[in-house]
Amino acid sequence: MRLAALYTAFAVLAILANLAAQRLVLALLGDAGFALAVLVGTGVGLVLKYLLDKRWIFEDRETGARAHSRKFGLYTAMGLVTTAIFWGFETLAWMTWQTDFAREAGAVLGLAIGYVVKYRLDRRFTFRTAPA
Predict the structure, then answer these.
(1) Which of 4, 56, 114, 132 is most enclosed, with most CB atoms within 10 A?
(2) Is the pLDDT of residue 92 over 90?
(3) For residues 91-114, b (16+ Cβ closer than 10 Å) or e, as one string?
(4) How far is residue 122 from each of residues 2, 45, 100, measured CA to CA in Å?
(5) What gap in Å lies between CA 49 and CA 52, rounded to an integer?
């Protein structure tokens, strides 16, 4: 139960960081910056979530550039499918209703679904020695 609560809290933090980064880009570039906003937000959320998951969810104490680059590469690869889920929901909501609320609601829904899938992939492939 503790693990699920932590994972959920970290997912919420990553979502908030993602959306804050998107809002910043959109504030600077307007609607023309939508694709860049989604990309920047995704990057910010990804790095934050990796650091939190590695230490607190999967209790991975391995250090060093080699270990981090290998695991971050796997973590990112596992995130490609889940990112497609997230981007799909966010983009569909934006294209359908073209409001910030709809875009963010689509993003939150897509990220929530994506994080469930991502946990399972990371547990199996990225952090193999992780607790169940």
Answers:
(1) 114
(2) yes
(3) bebbeeeeeeebbbebbbbbbbeb
(4) 18, 16, 31
(5) 5
pLDDT tens string 9-57: 999 999 899 999 999 999 999 999 999 999 999 999 999 999 999 999 9
What does the pLDDT read at residue 130?
Answer: 43
Q: How far apart are CA 45 and CA 38, in angstroms?
A: 11
Give the separation between CA 85 and CA 109, rounded to whole angstroms: 9
Phi and psi based region of residue 17 (left: phi greater than 0; alpha: psi -120 to 50; beta: remaining): alpha
Which among 9, 82, 100 is positioned nearest to 48, based on CA atoms? 9
Q: Say if residue 13 is exposed, middle or buried (CB neighbours under 10 Å; 0-12, 13-18, 19+).
A: middle
Q: How far is CA 99 from CA 36, 38, 57, 91, 115, in A?
A: 17, 15, 35, 11, 24
On average, the pLDDT of the chain sits at 92
Percent of the chain with pLDDT over 70: 97
